[in-house]
Hints:
Layout: H1 4-10, E1 11-22, H2 47-50, H3 61-73, E2 77-78, E3 81-82, E4 85-88, E5 98-101, E6 108-109, E7 112-117, E8 126-139, E9 143-147, E10 150-154, E11 161-167, H4 174-191, E12 203-213, E13 223-228, H5 231-250, E14 258-263, E15 268-274, H6 278-281, E16 284-285, E17 292-293, H7 296-304, H8 310-321, H9 325-331, H10 335-348, H11 354-369, H12 381-392, H13 398-411, H14 415-421, H15 430-443, H16 445-452, H17 459-469, H18 476-487
Parallel strand pairs: 13-14
Antiparallel strand pairs: 1-11, 1-12, 2-6, 3-17, 4-5, 4-16, 6-8, 7-8, 8-11, 9-10, 12-13, 14-15
Amino acid sequence: MTDLATVLEIWEPVIGLEVHIQLATESKAFSASATGFGAPPNSLTDPTVLGLPGALPSFNVRALELALRLGVATGSKIRARCRFARKHYFYPDLPKGYQISQYDEPLCEDGAVEVMVAGGASGPLERRKVRLQRIHLEEDAGKNTHHGTSSLVDLNRAGVPLCEVVTLPDLHSAADAAEYMRALHRLVRYLGVSEGDMEKGQLRCDANVSVRRRGEDRLGTRTELKNINSFRFVQKAIEHEIGRQVRILEDGGAVERETRLWDASAGVSQPMRSKEEIADYRYFPDPDLPPLTVDGATMRKVITTMPELPAPKLERFVREYGLTFDDAATLTAERELADFLDAAVRAAGNGALARPMASFMLNELLRVLDGRPIGQSPVTPVALAELVGLVASDVISGKIAKDVFTSMWETGDAARVIVERDGLRQISDEATLRSMCEQIIADNPKQVELYRAGKESLLGFFVGLVMKASDGKANPGLTTELMKKLLAGS
């Protein structure tokens, strides 16, 4: 079988994800070395990172606070006391010969990540929960770079603090796995836990994939896809692995338990190594680190500084602001973007303006930002609220508002100042508009005859001529109403 949809009628994928999230600290997990990106190779190291004799680790408490924010946001059970353990394996990018991690005493357990999905064209929003097995703290390894037959090691990343977020095998499609990744990425950025820049390796995914015939309870043999660093690659890698395993099983073979690397350019996975078992890592409590305790003061600080989370915010934007799911999803993708809309609505003092303000942000503001953060916008939420308020009160038309916005962006002037200075007030005087409409009708007798003969689509032609004659200042709604009446002979 080659068609994935056909495959999934017979086979059920079972997917669990392990996502490594780099915590937004200035220094490393167990030493004072900086965590900057792009520094010269092996310049961000010290005796502790290098595992030199006599160097002792000292835990970065800021990493604990960030991990706790993620634990609270996911509704996890948080241990008041836990331990670090040594996880032994021997790679060139791990100078100590072990990684400091957590084994049988993870910081957080039994949480869930909420994923919001639209319930069809007109259906309600649906909250899906992907259950978490655990969230634990650990340090990162370095980075190997391969050049032909030579390999180079850069230890700048070694010792960087990570949260590893491990799901239960709750996911049953590659698309769901990718959507979960987007939700988790959005969550950690909202919380300030991590920048989540996947190109910098700040959020990396290992996917555990197995397949079984539909209706079976037992799990199939799973393989691990290692270090996938984009949402699209997560989906493509899992789809490929599902197809690969199904082909093996339908040909009478057996899936091997192994770790595989995803080659994004070739669109295939390659064997990396046989999959280690727990016993291979020889975990034991790290004798150089005391137990980690979470006191009441720390928890109070975390809980009282929690922001509104992405899923509830998206749901609120749909419910209170009347936005579509897609528009709400776009505007809540980044916390700063969502906060901008909330601030604009507060400044307007009128929730009914939320939809037109959201539309202006989506169609005008994001266009001129061109991928830059909203914080770089010279148009503030208060300024946007004033501009949209002028449209709502018929001072200017929607078309003129776009020109005013351009001027606001370029000059920093307020909307009302620009409107008054440039004489952009909308013409809403009925007598003036009637005179303009009558003149257009008089100038176009053939089109009037066609309209009255049944070609009502010409209404737009007449309204357009009025708008042109008024330099776009005619009130379009009132103009349309008057033109209809005059063309009907009223």
